[in-house]
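#struct-help
A.M.: can someone run this one for me? Single chain, 131 residues.
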Amino acid sequence: MTDDHAPAIKTRFVSGLGGFFFRAKDPGILGEWYEKYFDISSTLSNQLWHQEAGPTVFAPFKEDTGYFGRKEQMFMLNFRVYDLDLFLDFLQSSGVLIDEKRQDESYGRFAWIYDPEGNKIELWEPPNENK
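D.P.: on it. Structure tokens below:
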């Protein structure tokens, strides 16, 4: 596929993901939840979240995918984590809803949890992340 409006010179203009904006039933509660469990400062705290450099997957899925959980969920966050088992233990002890499914692949280990509004979140421990 070609884009007639693309620059003729191959230059990188995008340096990374600059923000993620989404609707919430209660933005305050959801912002506090992500800050508590993921150390992501929400706009409510007037702080910016500075993440570590690392791989980021940007992948549109078919609109009828079941991978995200509920069909109303139009996105799914994926967070890189250092110690998946320890983090899941922490989340479970805090009462966070955790999916029973786990997946181990050559490119990492995966688990899924749900935020307070029922949005499915993917946790990814890349290979050798603990080493």
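A.M.: thanks! The CA atoms of residues 5 and 78 lie 31 Å apart.
D.P.: also worth noting: The radius of gyration is 17 Å.
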